[in-house]
């Protein structure tokens, strides 16, 4: 039996769908307050849903009955400063619970981390799996939670866990809707006027799912992989999305000092409304940083070829227009 945690989320749902389309009957875990995503409703006969929070070791133990493979996609994600410590605690302790159970039951795991947990390269170099985040210089709660969760997986590997870690860049796809990375397309659609000088990697959600399955079905263990299709500057990605949607491209460079003002303004609005900030300090500063990623390791080890990013962008834009 295969278990997918976090299957109500963007990546977890796409992964579950891909597994079912390959002929598997799977088990998916969800929190009691989560709803099954529309993407998975047509596959009810192939998916067994169980209620299991990562912080509930007893529920996890029951969810793992008869399981031989686990795809761990569950995570607490928030931009609110008030959620920083709870997010770190939940992600790290939840991963630790899961790792302990998988070690004891000899269950193979593919753990989903993020490039937020990968360090920086020297100027002009690509960021690769050899780079590691320095926690003493990091203040982003999400990045810290992902890094420390990875450390729990590595601790499990030292204790005999058969596991692989994936570090995706920004994941995009139609099923994101207007949440998460979907906000990029929605913001451009509404008329984005500014672009920032930085760059980042992007990857199709289906490619991430396929890479994870390819790694699970391989004999590879005790390795981490950056999952990235292409690196794009923010000016390039915003411009391509705008052209695809038939709206005006952002034409004004948002300099770092402007981004500093923007996140402070967003913080004030969030405090007044009680909603997540439209832009947080970490994201604002990251938007001016060039971070380009090396995807050669995953391509070499499982022979994977990524879908061209422009195809994914066109697919998402077509869905938005419809």
UniProtKB/TrEMBL annotation:
Pfam families for this protein: Epimerase (PF01370)
GO MF annotation list: aldehyde dehydrogenase (NAD+) activity
Lineage: superkingdom: Bacteria
Coiled coil start-end: none
Listed InterPro entries: Epimerase_deHydtase (IPR001509), NAD(P)-bd_dom_sf (IPR036291), NAD(P)-dependent_oxidoreduct (IPR051783)
A cellular component term, taken from the record's GO annotations: cytoplasm
Domain NAD-dependent epimerase/dehydratase: 2-218
PANTHER family in the record: NAD(P)-BINDING DOMAIN-CONTAINING PROTEIN-RELATED (PTHR48079:SF6), PROTEIN YEEZ (PTHR48079)
Name of the protein described by the UniProt record: NAD-dependent epimerase/dehydratase family protein
Organism: Mucilaginibacter glaciei
